[in-house]
Structure formats: structure tokens, C-alpha cells
# Entry
Amino acid sequence: MAKKLSRNDRRQARHLRVRKDVFGTPERPRMCVYRSLKNISVQVIDDVNGRTLAAASSLDKDVKAEAAYGGNKDAAKLVGASIAKKAMAAGIETVCFDRGGYLYHGRVKELADGAREAGLKF
# Structure
């Protein structure tokens, strides 16, 4: 009998499928999203050198001060704006978006919209 995969196992399989095509370079790094039940985080990663160039989370002090709860759309939008500011400060204007196997819906979409509104291109 086949073992039933958990929801997270299926998400990781989707993420690996997408990662075959999405690759971050120093000129256009990958913006990777991780979503948990209570928080959301994002990293801008240069896959060629294996370095994280910028990171933001709903646990950061500036986001936590504005959003009471880190697991909703408002916090996700603030995290998107925060990562855009940090990426622009690091000299990054364009990224490729890696949704991490999650649907482009809800908090993931709000994070992307917040980053676009703050000036990041993808």
C-alpha cells in the first residue's frame, strides 16, 4: 500500500519541481518565500555563490512593531516592503520570484505585491 504524503511533503516536491527552472544569479537573484502558520519570511539568494543577500521576516522588529500578528496578509505586505528596501539598499532591483511551492494566493500574493509597490521588479 502506498504511503500518503503529508501536505508539507507535497509542497516540497512542488518546490523542487519549480527550482529546476528558477535559479538566482548575482545580477538577478532568487527571492524565496517560506510561509508558516504564524509567520512569513523571505530571502534574496544568489545561487551561483550560495549567499543570502537580504532577508526579511514577520519576526523582524520593524515589521513586528507595525503588525500585531505575523500570520496574516497585512504582515505579509509589510515583509514584502521590507525585503524590497533591503534589496534596494544592497543594489538589487530585479529578482526572480520563487513562491516556495505555495499557491500564488493570499499571503504569498500580498508579499509579492508589497515588494512590487516598494520598487522591486519581477
